[in-house]
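Hey,
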Amino acid sequence: MTSTTDIKAIIRRHRTRDAAFAVLGMVCLLVCIATLMALLVDLAIDGVGRLSPGFLTSFPSRFPGKAGILSAWVGTILVMLVTALAAVPLGVAAGIYLEEYARKNWLTTIIEINIANLAGVPSIVYGLMALGLFVYQFHLGQSILTAGLTLALLILPIVIIATRESIRAIPGSIREAAYALGATKWQAIKHHVLPYSTGGILTGVIIGLSRAIGESAPLITIGALTFIAFLPPAPVQRTFPFVNFDWLASPFTVMPIQLFNWVSRPQQAFHLNAAAAGLVLMAMTLAMNGIAIYVRYHSRKRIKW
């Protein structure tokens, strides 16, 4: 029989381990923050002098003083729009089906294993797959639509896994209470499970989109341009039907490819342009994450209320 002294010793030992793990986690967090701040400071020192309205509203040029990132940041926004519209609904729906509706058998086990493995596949593999499927098989061309679908496939496993883990964390008593009041399975999921799991799902979406916005390898594989001096057609127009989908078939470039193009040049002035573009890309990523965090915060606040 374990004595009181032994129990106290075990508790003390576990508390020591918890404290040590907390200290280790804090050290790792500080190292990550210090690394990020060092990167931001280095980019700011080199590129803040090039940041100006003209830099954001000018097309790329062979003259570094006149070069801008207009086509790059517009292309990035449009590609990420297609990526989000394709990956988020499909990923959330797949996660709900696998967690709530699919039977637990060997087939679903194989699907789950493959989804987990796809989350770690190198991005260039998705580019090669998209080249054969979207460009050559479906004849979508080297377009914004192809780029968005390629990045959607890249982050789809992340969204599915985050959705499943968020739904799995909801206590079963919430579902049972809904069933007891006469709710159907879908009503319980729609009105109870999904609202409580929105925060975790949005966290997965943030991680996925943050990875997608910085990818260049799969987009280069499907034929993204390194130099483009025009913009795609506007998605919204003044005349009926007011919505234009021609921009989906337009050639494109994105911020990471523009960065790569400038960094690979020998002139120091282009390197300064790359640093400035890096700051803009970081700002776009933080803005996108900020919007998702804002939505997540208000969804949680509405549930508590």
